[in-house]
Structure formats: structure tokens, C-alpha cells
């Protein structure tokens, strides 16, 4: 961009994440219908905030008032230091990324042209625009050489959605608004897009307002969640773990579902106090020594590590007979998760392998194991607020 052609950017123009404040914001229609009650909400800089609730509760209206597609009846909306209710709406929208359910790509333009729309409107040079577009296409998992010159109709639904995210990020906006962006794709693609988007957000750290009707999606991706009810009221504004562990009222409890304890597994991380520590043998130990160690401990099995203390497998007393080494008799251990996984991932791994325990690794280093009993204890600690949260973790 030619620096001489533009005035210095404000905080909300620079691409750096900024706070969004809604101060007494409401929308009342001409017939007296209240679309959104007076909202006082703060969306923290660099966080992904989800607006969730039943159809007609005002979540999309709230989001559209942020970029003044819908004009608020009362109140102020402040992005960074700028009161957007007093700003030129066209110029302001060019500084806000916007992703909608059906993507909204221009069908007659190539993907590269679509993604470069806002930089062109802002007067970026051709070389700079092309470099930014190619960078973003690669970032969202689309090869610029393969997909850049294709048209939207030549891409799958998931690919079009990724192109829509790239277009929204092209001018490096500080704020990204997303209106049910993944609901039009099948469940498998949707889960993959959610994971990819979380990976992208961990890099770009934009201030994101994300609208969905799906509490599972909200819990998986949100740093904070606002549960809205009819009439545009916010019933609870909390982290996913707090929302699931301590619903504010019956409406929230009913909305998040009776299985909220299971949902909470997805936003609860593995803590050191969750781990059990079975006997440890090494692959080059003799079986005679292993038998003695198992007998002394009374354990039903032992973890087997190699010479570098990496997980090698496990050994039960029935395989510890005869001579030879532990490594030759040990069973391979398939049920393991990384330390940063959620309890949901650990539980799913345990079920997938029909295992009575799952090993937890920090890189290659063995930390301990989770059992059904320790998983249950970890969930209880989570509900009581004594366990780490992993909101927005792709591993959830």
C-alpha cells in the first residue's frame, strides 16, 4: 500500500485486535417489536465470542448492528476507540471482516479476485494485493496455484467457506463477524472447518463475534459465550466451562442440555492431579525382575518405557512369565493422548480402543495415565472450578 495515499490508521484500522463494547444497544422496530433489548456487552480484544440462542432471539441482529447493516435504535457501539454509530458505514465496513452462512462469493470472479475485493477497494497495489491473497489462500488451506484462478462453482462447499474466511481477512481487519459460517456444510466438513478456524485464530488473534444456534459448536470454539433468549436478552455471558458447570437459570440449563456434563469434557483440560501413576518398567528389564515388581505392587499392569523414557507399551502379569526382556513381551499401547488434549478426547480415545486407561504424553515423555475413575474425578473438579479449561481447543 502506498503510505502517502492514506492517513495513519487508528487502532481499529491497524489490524491489531481491539475491544468491542455495546453500551445500551437496542433494536425496536416500527411496530413496537423488540428485536434486541438494551445490551451492555464487552467483547475482549483477541477473543472469539459466540452469540447463541434459539431462532429469533436477536443474535444475528446484534451482530449486524456492529457493522450497521442494521441501525441500532439506542445505544453506542465502540470498536477500539471509535464510536461506529457515528462513523461512515461504508468506510467502517471495509475495516470489518464479514463471513456469512452461504459465503457470498461473487460467482463471476475467480477466487483470487474474490479474496482481493477489499484491498482493491482500499487502493492497494496489484502486487501487494496478489501477495496478500496468495498468503491467505495458503493460510486457509487452499493452494493459490491450484485454486486461485478457479471460480466459486468449481470448489467444494468447504473450500468455498475457506475462501470466504480468506476474503474477510484480506485487509487485516481488527474485527471479524461470522454469521453461522459452517452450517451449510456436512457434519464431517463442518468439524474440520471448525478445527482449521481455531488453528487460524490461534495465529491471527482477531476479535471475533460468531453467531450460531448450535451449542455444541459454541462450546467447541468460543472463548466466551452469550446465551440469548427471545426479546434479545442475554441470559448468561460466560466461558464455556462456567456456562456448562453453572447455568445461570432454567432457560440456560434447558438450552445447553441435560448432557452438559459430557459437553464440559470438551472444554476441560488434563491437570497433573488427574493422572494416576502405575508401576513403570523398562523395555530392557528382565522378565524375572518385572514379575517381582508387579507382585510387590499388586498392580494389574505396568507401563513399559524404552531407553529414552518414551512410551513403549504395557505389560500384564500373564505376559511376564518365562525368560527374556520386558520389551519382547510387552503389548503395544494404542490408547494415548497429548498433554494438551481435552478430557473428551481422552475419554473418546479410551472408548475407541476399548482400553481401561489412556496414557498422557508431553511430546515423547510419559506423564501418567487417566482411568475412568480419574476422568470422573477430573470432571467433578471442573464443575467445582478447580480444573483447567481448554475453551477453543482444536483437540476438543
Q: State the CATH architecture of the largest domain.
A: 3-Layer(aba) Sandwich
Distance between the termini: 40 Å
User: Unreliable segments (pLDDT under 50, ≥5 consecutive)?
Assistant: 1-12, 391-396
Strand content: 15-25%
What is the number of helices?
16
Radius of gyration: 26 Å
Q: What is the CATH homologous superfamily assignment of the largest domain?
A: P-loop containing nucleotide triphosphate hydrolases
Mean pLDDT: 84
Strand order across the biggest sheet? Answer: 6-7-8-3-9-10
The description of the largest β-sheet is: 6 strands, mixed
CATH fold-level topology of the largest domain: Rossmann fold
CATH class of the largest domain: Alpha Beta
Structural class of the helices, strands and pairings? alpha/beta
Number of domains: 2
* Shape label: elongated
Instruction: List the quaternary state of the chains.
Output: single chain
Total E-strand runs? 16
Helical fraction equals 25-40%
Can you describe this structure in just a few lines?
This protein has helices at about 60-65, 90-95, 110-115, 115-120, 125-140, 145, 155-170, 185-205, 215-220, 240-245, 250-255, 260-265, 285-295, 325-330, 345-350, 370-385; strands at about 20-30, 35-45, 50, 75-80, 80-85, 95-100, 175-180, 205-210, 225-230, 235-240, 280, 300-305, 310-315, 335-340, 360, 365-370.
Amino acid at each position: 500500500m502506498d503510505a502517502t495515499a492514506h492517513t495513519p490508521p487508528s487502532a481499529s484500522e491497524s489490524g491489531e485486535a481491539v475491544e468491542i463494547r455495546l453500551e445500551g444497544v437496542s433494536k425496536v422496530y416500527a411496530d413496537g417489536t423488540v428485536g434486541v433489548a438494551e445490551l451492555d456487552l464487552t467483547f475482549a480484544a483477541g477473543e472469539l465470542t459466540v452469540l447463541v440462542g434459539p431462532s429469533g432471539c436477536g443474535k444475528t441482529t446484534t451482530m449486524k448492528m456492529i457493522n450497521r447493516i442494521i441501525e441500532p435504535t439506542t445505544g453506542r457501539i465502540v470498536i477500539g476507540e471509535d464510536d461506529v454509530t457515528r462513523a461512515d458505514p461504508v468506510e467502517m465496513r471495509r475495516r470489518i471482516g464479514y463471513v456469512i452462512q452461504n459465503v457470498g462469493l461473487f460467482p463471476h470472479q475467480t477466487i483470487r479476485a474474490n479474496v482481493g475485493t477489499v484491498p482493491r477497494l482500499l487502493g492497494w497495489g496489484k502486487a501487494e494485493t496478489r501477495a496478500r491473497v496468495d498468503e491467505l489462500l495458503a493460510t486457509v488451506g487452499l493452494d493459490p496455484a491450484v485454486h486461485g484462478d478457479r471460480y466459486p462453482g468449481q470448489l467444494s462447499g468447504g473450500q468455498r467457506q475457506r475462501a470466504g474466511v480468506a476474503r474477510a481477512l484480506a485487509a487485516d481487519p481488527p474485527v471479524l463477524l461470522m454469521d453461522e459460517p459452517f452450517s451449510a456444510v456436512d457434519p464431517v466438513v463442518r468439524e474440520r472447518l471448525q478445527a482449521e478456524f481455531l488453528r487460524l485464530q490461534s495465529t491471527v488473534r482477531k476479535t471475533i463475534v460468531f453467531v450460531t444456534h448450535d451449542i455444541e459448536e459454541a462450546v467447541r470454539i468460543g472463548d466466551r459465550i452469550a446465551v440469548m433468549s427471545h426479546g434479545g436478552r442475554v441470559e448468561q455471558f460466560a466461558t464455556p466451562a462456567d456456562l456448562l458447570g453453572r447455568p445461570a437459570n432454567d432457560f440456560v440449563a434447558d438450552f445447553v442440555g441435560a448432557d452438559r456434563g459430557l459437553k464440559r469434557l470438551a472444554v476441560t483440560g488434563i491437570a497433573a492431579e488427574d493422572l494416576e501413576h502405575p508401576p513403570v518398567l523398562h523395555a530392557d528389564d528382565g522378565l524375572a525382575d518385572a514379575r517381582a515388581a508387579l507382585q510387590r505392587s499388586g498392580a494389574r499392569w505396568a507401563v513399559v518405557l524404552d531407553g529414552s523414557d518414551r512410551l513403549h507399551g504395557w505389560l500384564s502379569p500373564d505376559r511376564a512369565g518365562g525368560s527374556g526382556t520386558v520389551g519382547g513381551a510387552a503389548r503395544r499401547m494404542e490408547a494415548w493422548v497429548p498433554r494438551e488434549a481435552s478430557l473428551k478426547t481422552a475419554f473418546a480415545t479410551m472408548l475407541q480402543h476399548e482400553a481401561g486407561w489412556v496414557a498422557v504424553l508431553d511430546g515423547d515423555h510419559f506423564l501418567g495415565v487417566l482411568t475412568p475413575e480419574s476422568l470422573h474425578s477430573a470432571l467433578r473438579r471442573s464443575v467445582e472450578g478447580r480444573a483447567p479449561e481448554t475453551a477453543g481447543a482444536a483437540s476438543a
